[in-house]
Structures are given as structure tokens and as C-alpha cells.
Amino acid sequence: MNQAMNAYLQQQQGSGADIFNMARSDVFAPIHISRGFDTYRTDNSATGRAEGYSGLYVIQDDIAKISKLLNNDGGMAGGKQLLDPVRLQETLQRTPAPFGIPESTTGPPVDMYFNGFHADQVTYSCSFWVPNMAGSGGIIVALFPNGSTFYLVSDNNEWDWTHALSESNKLVPVCPTSH
């Protein structure tokens, strides 16, 4: 997917265009991501193609800034729309119908995958989706519908964010209250 996006960008902007560098300058720089934010590249070279899906080096502050952009700011930073708001709502499963590919092949979709995000359907007094970014080994960033974010950086294959959702719900309810 990353290479297809890079090829499309190069068709539009020329052979020197690079999808990761574009994302870094157009999205990550305006939200002040750390200078060390980078990705693996093919040929293990600075001029190789960006993988973009692995080898991303972030610090806790980067996770918080990216999460805030996605979960709280609707893709805006500094008064500028950085991400398409309709595509962002689809990606975060915040539309009437779910988007993407069901992660299970039996029964109704309870887990979806779309635009690099997993999403799990949760039911409290209402039903909602929790989009999350899961990395190899045990990295998870879960974006809760009440605006809070849970993240865990581990190498122990741990991705369980349900207890954090329960605690977050005590502070700010995830389901709208009716009066």
C-alpha cells in the first residue's frame, strides 16, 4: 500500500517525491513531532523507499500529538486542516456504517480493518467502535470515543486496552447521556 501511494505521488509530483517525507512535512511537522521521527527504508539507505509501516521511531510525546490530531482535533492543527475530515471519520469508524474489511469471517463485524487502523466494536449502554493502531510485539494506541487515548509500548504481545476504557469511562462517559 505504501509503495502504491508513493508511486501515485510520484506520478503527480515527479520522481523525487517521497510519501513519507510528504507526510512528515505536511502532517507531522505542523504538530511538532520529534526530529528523530523516521522509518525504515529499502536498501537500508536514506535514498531508499520508505516502508512507513514498520521501524517508526516515536517517543511518548509523538504518540500523544498524533493521537490528539486524530482523536480530538479532527485532523486540524494550528487552524489548518491537515487530514481530510470525511476520510478521518471513516478511518476511525465514526460513521453510521463501518468501513473496511471485517477481521473475522463469521457473524456480524465486531472487528474491522481500514486505512491501517484496527477497530473493535464495544457495547456498554451504547455500541461504538474503538479504533486502534497495533504494532508488532505489543504496541497499541487505542482512541476512545470520549476523547481519551490509551497507549502501551511493550514487547510482550499485549494489546488489551479494555480495562483502560472502563477507567476512562468513569471520568468521561463513552456513551451519550440522555436527559
Detailed description of the structure:
With 179 residues, the chain is α+β, with helices and mostly antiparallel strands. The chain is built from five helices and eight strands; from the N terminus they run αααββαββββββα. It has helices at 2-13, 19-28, 60-71, 85-91, 162-171; strands spanning 76-77, 80-81, 101-102, 111-114, 117-123, 127-135, 139-143, 149-152. Strands 3-4-5-6-7-8 form a six-stranded antiparallel beta sheet, with helices on one face. Strands 1-2 form a two-stranded antiparallel ribbon. Strand 1 and strand 2 (80-81) form a beta hairpin. It is globular, with a radius of gyration of 17 Å. The protein starts with a helix and ends in an 8-residue tail after the last helix.
Structural descriptors:
two-stranded antiparallel ribbon, 179 residues, alpha+beta, 6-stranded antiparallel β-sheet
